[in-house]
Specification:
about 210 residues, alpha+beta, Methyltransferase, Cobalt-precorrin-4 Transmethylase, Domain 2, Arc Repressor Mutant, subunit A, 2 domains, 5-stranded mixed β-sheet, 3-stranded antiparallel β-sheet, 7 helices, 10 strands, elongated
Length: about 210
């Protein structure tokens, strides 16, 4: 068992981030599943159980949390996740900390007949859209994409200080939607643009 180190205490005080999240308990199985998938599909992440949303430490029961965690992994996720778990002592409270490794394969959350894939953007865990899925496919196959005039024209719709949604790109561009989807996914793959969250939806920003 590890005693709470200053770094973890500082992270809790700072709140959620791209690679750090905390929850009070693991009872909301779909929420936990989406968090796990979001970290696994993005970068390594840390999930701490036993902390309220406002940062107040209330503690956890590590044995029960671990059982809940393993149940969620087996019942709601499409593939195996690599993780480690440790108990952390915070005053008289025990926290349960999970280190979730980035997965080689994209992880989906399965709930009955529905299947959703999640991504971590900032401190948000969001369902991915078709643009992200296309970019991931390019990455998975390590395809070569060369910038051309169409890519450069598409880049003209993006800005460094104001994000734009896919629906707005459809409105301002005269290209077919299928061509727009292809170009934006390739620009994302080429790291010319990146993802941000605005009003709980994915938007795009020039790098």
């Amino acid at each position: 068992m590890e005693r709470l180190n200053p770094n973890l205490e500082q992270k809790i005080n700072e709140g959620w981030s791209q690679e750090f999240h905390f929850v009070e308990d693991a009872e909301n199985e779909l929420e936990i599943a989406s968090l796990i998938a979001g970290f696994a599909n993005s970068n390594d992440g840390v999930l701490v159980v036993g902390v309220k949303e406002n940062g107040k430490v209330v503690g956890s029961f590590p044995k029960q949390v671990t059982e809940d965690f393993e149940h969620i992994l087996s019942q709601f996720l499409s593939d195996q996740i690599k993780f480690t778990m440790e108990e952390v002592l915070f005053g008289r409270h025990l926290l349960t900390r999970f280190f979730i490794k980035k997965s080689l394969f994209k992880i989906s959350v399965i709930n009955n007949s529905s299947k959703e894939t999640y991504l971590r953007i900032g401190f948000n865990t969001v369902p991915v859209n078709k643009i992200v899925l296309k970019a991931w496919a390019l990455e998975h196959h390590s395809l070569t994409v060369e910038m051309d005039d169409l890519h450069r024209e598409m880049l003209s719709y993006f800005h460094q200080n104001k994000s734009i949604s896919l629906s707005n790109v459809y409105k301002v561009s005269k290209m077919k939607k299928s061509i727009i989807d292809k170009l934006i996914s390739e620009l994302l793959y080429l790291k010319q643009i990146h993802l941000v969250i605005n009003n709980n939806r994915i938007e795009y920003l020039l790098r």
